[in-house]
Amino acid sequence: MPRGPVDSDVDLRVDGRAQRAYDPVILGAIAAGGAIGAAARYLVGLGWPTPPGGFPVSTLVINVVGCGLIGILMVLVTDVLTRQRLLRPFLGTGVLGGFTTFSTYAVDIQQLVTGRHAGIALLYLATTVLGALLAVRATVSATRALITWRTR
Amino acid sequence: MTRLLLVIAGGLIGAPLRYIADRAVQARHDSLFPWGTFSVNVVGSLILGFLVGASSALPHDVQLLVGTGFCGALTTYSTFSYETIRLYEDRARFLAVANVTASIVAGLGSVFLGAAVSQAIWS
Questions:
Q1: Whole-number pLDDT of residue B123
Q2: Average pLDDT of B75-86?
Q3: By the CB < 8 Å criterion, does A18 face chain B?
Q4: How do residues B94-108 score in pLDDT, each as one tens digit?
Q5: N or C: which end of chain B has fewer CB within 10 A?
Q6: Model ipTM?
Q7: Which residues of B are annotated as a binding site for Na(+)?
Q8: What integer is the mean pLDDT of B33-48?
Q9: Which parts of the sequence bind Na(+) (chain A) (predicted)?
């Protein structure tokens, strides 16, 4: 049973092709959110640095936490706060998209592999994917259950 | 403080560019597979790989602006994971597994490629 878009950033099936392609208000909300998310990620990394050859715990935590939050947000915007037009662009596409990162994840793995820490690289690769997917699955289910319980 | 501002500037550009690129890719591919997010993650990984390979040649400010800020915000783990779970829930389980496998293989390949190119230029 499809609920809401597959892509939380853009889904033309849901957003509709009729909507203006580049609405400046939406782009502004995404940019502001992206700046906040990127700054938060930078500050977490500064406060919790990963030593060379070490397991990148801060990037793992950033990505898993961001995935848990997108699960909550997407259920809320598709089932409850359906009239809040800027909530998904600002918080989902902007803040959480800017906070979580795929490129740093990939570079972390490459750095570990080239530094001859293939075991840590593989462990990091797997725990991030599993942690991120489980986080989304858990928060989507929990948020849906909470909404069903509240509206019963 | 200047460093934080560089990261903010990169994020300010990277996040809306992800939205624009994602939208442009989706408008051309009418498939369930999330090609838009896949594309931005691969391109962002290529650029960050290039930057990391050139880390000794490029100033740290460039790394913060383009690497941490721009590439970090252009690419996303939350959208990638959310899409994967949505595909899985919609019984498109093959696409869910394909999305994870293809994103990781292509993302890692791009990082190695980008790093190799910049090392070839600056060494």
A1: 74
A2: 97
A3: no
A4: 999 999 999 999 999
A5: N
A6: 0.95
A7: 72, 75
A8: 97
A9: 97, 100
B34–A133 C-beta distance less than 8 A: no
Contact yes or no for A30 and B71 at CB 8 A: no
List, for residues A109-146, the tens digit of each pLDDT value.
999 999 999 999 999 999 999 999 999 999 999 999 99
Q: Provide the pLDDT for residue A8.
A: 81
Residue with tokens 């406060």: A47
Show Cβ contacts of residue B120 under 8 Å, excluding neighbours closer than 6 positions: none
A56–chain B Cβ distance below 8 A for any pair: no
Per-window interface: A 19-38 vs B, CB < 8 A: 21-22, 26-27, 30-38
Q: B13, A31: Cβ pair inside 8 Å?
A: yes
Domain total in chain A: 1
Look-up of token digits 């986080």: A135
Whether residue A120 contacts residue A60, with contact meaning beta carbons closer than 8 Å, is answered with no
Asked if residue A7 belongs to a domain, the reply is no
- A100 annotated ligand-binding residue: yes
* B2-28 and B35-53 helices, crossing angle to 10°: 140
Query: Does residue A121 sit within a domain?
Result: yes
Please give the Cα distance from A147 to A149 (Å, whole number). 5
Q: What is the pLDDT, as a whole number, of residue A13?
A: 59
**Torsion, Cα of B88, A83, A9, B85 (10° steps):** -10
Closest chain B residue to the Cα of A69, Cα to Cα: B78
Of B15, B79, B110, the CB nearest to A31: B15
Flag whether A56 is in a domain: yes
Domain that holds residue A61: 12-150
Q: Phi/psi at A50 (nearest 5 deg)?
A: -100, 120
Domain spans of chain B, in order of start = 2-122
Low-confidence ranges of chain A (pLDDT < 70): 1-4, 11-21
